[in-house]
Amino acid sequence: MRAYLVTMLLAGVAASQAHAKLVTFDYTAVVNKATRRGASTGYATIDVPSISIEGKEIAVGDTQRGSFTIDLDTPTYDWRPENPTVEYRGSLNNIGSVSVDRSGYSFASEGSLYASGFSVLNQPSGDSFSFNTYSNNMIGHGSGFIRIRLDDTNGDLLGTNAPPESLNLAAAEWSEILYGYYPEANGDSLTTWGTLTALAVRPPSPVPEPASYAMLVAGLLTVGAAARAKARRKG
User: Fold this and answer.
1) pLDDT per residue over 192-214, tens digit each?
2) Are 195 and 63 in contact (CB under 8 A)?
3) Is 69 within 8 Å of 24 (Cβ atoms)?
4) Max Cα-Cα span within the chain
């Protein structure tokens, strides 16, 4: 019984740590620009009314929804120590998604260590938060990326250079989401720019993490083994 209680306690601790480690933000945005660049444009970047990916359109004026998750325990990747911007890279948990209400197009990234992550700049003259994530071999041949950025000029967006557990869109004087896809079948790169219209921290899920289930199963096996050993001693 004592082993069971200890295991349950450890499982509870593991679950709380797992939820505290990751923060997910849900956002809504409106597309205000779309561009194409490649051989078909003479390698010039041109504005277009819409782009089409695998037959699904993303047009100027469309509503986008999605989420991005940051790992609060991500190691600091200090590749320019003289730069006041703090980079957080090195976790596969930094992932993002985007979908388009009208056409039903959707994209979800997978973490890719130093290619996906976020940066924080906390200065009296202004704050900035930027999230980036990438996926390769998307839909069989292409790659996709998402970049989300919020900035202000009065230092109210962030409190420290630590990974933020919340972000206040109302405090940001400027916000942007870029979604890019490349290469298209003809080799062109497609990009949309949007402005965030809503941003909120997702409430923690009450469902235990896989690590918690593993701890619980291990505890039950331990209790079962102890019971069998006790029965053998009595026998």
Assistant:
1) 999 999 999 998 765 455 555 45
2) no
3) yes
4) 86
User: What is the Cα 230 distance to its own chain's centre?
Assistant: 49
Distance CA 11, CA 139 (A): 38
143 Cβ neighbours under 8 A, 6+ residues apart:
134, 135, 136, 137, 181, 182, 183
pLDDT tens per residue across span 23-32: 999 999 999 9
* Residue 150, both tokens: 């919020």
Using CA atoms, how far apart are residues 52 and 234, in angstroms rounded to an integer?
73
Burial 101-133 (b: 16+ CB within 10 A, else e): eebebebbbebbeeebbbbbbbeeebbbbbbbb
What is the band of 106 on the pLDDT scale with cuts at 50, 70, 90? very high
Pairing of strands 95-100, 50-53: unpaired
Provide the residue type at 151 as one letter. Answer: D
| pLDDT for the residue 1 | 47
Residue pair 77/89 in contact (Cβ under 8 Å)? The answer is yes
The DSSP annotation for 51-105 comes to EEETTEEEETT-EEEEEEEEETTPPB--S-TTSSPEEEE--TT-EEEEEETTT--
- The H-or-E segment that residue 189 falls in is strand 189-201
Give the CA angle between residues 126, 127, 130 to the nearest 5°: 140
Rounded (10°) angle between helices 2-21 and 210-234: 170
Tell me the per-residue pLDDT of 81-95, one tens digit each, with 9 for 90 and over: 788 999 999 899 999
Rounded distance, CA 52 to CA 230, Å?
67
